[in-house]
Amino acid sequence: MDVAEFINNYFTRPVYERTGYNMINTVVYAIIALFFAYLFFKILKRVKVKIDDKFVLRIIPFILLGSTLRVVTDATGDAAAGVPNQFLSNSNYLFGLYGFIGRLRIYDYRFITTTPGIYIVIGMLTFLSLLFFSRIRRMNLLPKFALLLLLPHLLLLIPLMKNWLYTLLVLLLTFAGLLVGRFILRKMKLKPGLTQLLVILSHSLDGAASYVAIELFGGGTAYFEQHVLSAALGTVFGTMFAFYVVKVAFSSLAVLLVETSNDSREEKNYVLLLLMIFGLAPGVRDTLRMLAGV
């Protein structure tokens, strides 16, 4: 197998054939993500950006933006599989805006609109925005800028939202996981703050959304687990509820390990932010996708 065939088999084809992740691209993507996370941290420290709870909250709208854009791409359907483009099928929605967007085809399934491309784009947008608003000393505008980009895309999904009962179940399981994680940390003599709780909330959401969408959802759309490790958990235990349980336990343990390390407060906050992103991004995407039924 030559290099071109290797790249095609393990990286290109899984994107365009929508078959999800494999062990090779999972490891490679993780290494790349960790490298850039380390590089970004060094640069942020160099330009004296303070990484605290406020910083974490300012990043969340960018995470929501990436997940929402991903669901908008899902709404364009899959012609090869006979799944209709929701913008063209509902062309009169939002005073004809759906039809206009569908004909533009700017959200069609391609590398930069799907995983991992969309998260690379959002990651770079977030980082460059951080540097810009830090330079002009207006960091308070950072989340507002992200929300300005987020809201129009969220608006595109609102007419499609219908599966509220399943979404409510996801939210109930999410908050149940949060309470369990908080209980675990308190039993370990750790009083969790906002950032610590957000990590558990994010991973509880990811686990709950996967479980409900794959095993309980009856909205006519068949979902499957695309990630290698989570799919393996579902196979071994025979249910994706195991993934939810592991997510709650993992996030609680991860917070405990970070908080009991010898790293500085800013280093801990940055690691907690990364952990939150890895749970919140797929969790919001899966929940929104199920809610919209795309």
The share of residues in extended strands comes to under 5%
* Main sheet makeup: none
Note the total helix count: 12
Task: Choose one word for the global shape.
Answer: globular
Order of secondary-structure elements: HHHHHHHHHHHH
Distance between the termini: 36 Å
> Helix share of residues?
over 70%
Radius of gyration: 19 Å
Count of separate structural domains: 2
Low-confidence stretches: none
Total strand count, please? 0
Structural class: mainly alpha
Mean pLDDT: 90
Comma- or semicolon-separated keywords:
single chain; 294 residues; mainly alpha; 2 domains; transmembrane helix; transmembrane; DUF63 family protein; DUF63
Walk me through what this model shows:
With 294 residues, the protein is mostly helical. It has two domains: 114 residues, no CATH class; 134 residues, no CATH class. It has twelve helices and no strands. Helix 8 crosses helix 9 and helix 8 packs antiparallel against helix 12.
